[in-house]
């Protein structure tokens, strides 16, 4: 978990950001129109970033820049999602290869290193500075203006809200664009943040997409950048483009109408309201406001509002319950044969059943969010106890994490593999081999890692282990 920065540290970091930048260079030698995986920072060779320069980049003009913060320090990943929009709208994009999900001090150093280096290398429009982040990176993005000690134009928070101590009013003058998947375990946090921004009258939009806790897909990222273009026109920091205004309006209107037609009235109203607000100075908004009023007055919408409120309460209770149970396991672990009892107590069977029933997207999404929270929390605790050598606690938590995983989850192979390691260290060879086989069946193909992993020492010389290795060699 990220720690809050101390006032002295912030002061030191802010002072360092007053250093004058040399005259920007041409970015010579860096390929345009493609992602460059690693650009080493000139002032600090331990820091680097992935880079995208639009094909038309030239140092003779100023360019908008988007800084990107991935919680796993995978600088290239967000660039892959924003590349199409960055090329279309001529954004430089720089993704830190060092900033990750805490602690804070290295995150701050990484941000400042990339900030300084990009300002040396490239010709940047100081009025069009943007930042995006996912999960913990989203929280770091909300601190970006403080870290570089200057206001910025826009913040794109994906899959999580603001850092501790950052209230909505501190975001201004930046425009805040939140993005969250309906199956993201931080969905409730983001919808509540939307209301906080409303109450503080901070310029913002929260966009919900069909997905889980992950960087938004490319088409959603393009919508976000288009929205930033609109805000740039409204604030007169980029030329007004009437054709683009009309194009974005029609696309966003079609998206809202599609949501309405599919019965997702809450999301439809949210998108209609965003349209009415963003385009009020350009296009007639009366038809949209009339439609918003009609939907809000309808019985179906009012029912959905009540259902959403009940779901929110249910989700809060689920989260409290599983945290209480996980804390109890840490303090007083039950015997391993009581695992099924724990699954029932955690409502895993019921949640898995609801998650698989996609007819009611709101109910299934709630179940997916809770399951994901259980999975990640239990997995984290299990991994910690595995490292500590407390195999029984490790098995309990890793079994819960594995059970909470959806059948088609790409993480399931890691859950089975970690469980195999825990059972092997526990000297429960049959269970270790069974879970290792399940890990392989679900896509864990790293033969070299399996052969060298010390956690699997107790099963390494068994015939079944050798069969698993041989099966992997054939893949």
Condensed summary:
The protein is an alpha/beta fold and 475 residues long.
Structural features:
8 strands; 8-stranded mixed β-sheet; globular; alpha/beta; 475 residues; 18 helices; Rossmann fold
Overview of this protein structure:
This protein has helices spanning 7-16, 76-89, 104-121, 136-148, 187-200, 218-234, 242-261, 265-278, 286-297, 299-331, 339-345, 348-355, 361-388, 391-404, 412-425, 429-441, 447-452, 463-473, and strands at residues 35-40, 48-52, 63-69, 92-96, 124-134, 154-158, 175-181, 204-209. It has 475 residues and is α/β, with parallel strands linked by helices. Helices cover 56% and strands 11% of the residues. It has 18 helices and eight strands. It is globular. Strand 3 (63-69), helix 2 (76-89) and strand 4 form a beta-alpha-beta unit. It folds into three domains: 7-240, Alpha/Beta hydrolase fold, catalytic domain (Rossmann fold, 3-Layer(aba) Sandwich); 303-409, no CATH class; 411-475, no CATH class. Strands 1-2-4-3-5-6-7-8 form an eight-stranded mixed sheet, with helices on both faces.
Topology:
Elements: H1 7-16, E1 35-40, E2 48-52, E3 63-69, H2 76-89, E4 92-96, H3 104-121, E5 124-134, H4 136-148, E6 154-158, E7 175-181, H5 187-200, E8 204-209, H6 218-234, H7 242-261, H8 265-278, H9 286-297, H10 299-331, H11 339-345, H12 348-355, H13 361-388, H14 391-404, H15 412-425, H16 429-441, H17 447-452, H18 463-473
Parallel strand pairs: 3-4, 3-5, 5-6, 6-7, 7-8
Antiparallel strand pairs: 1-2, 2-4
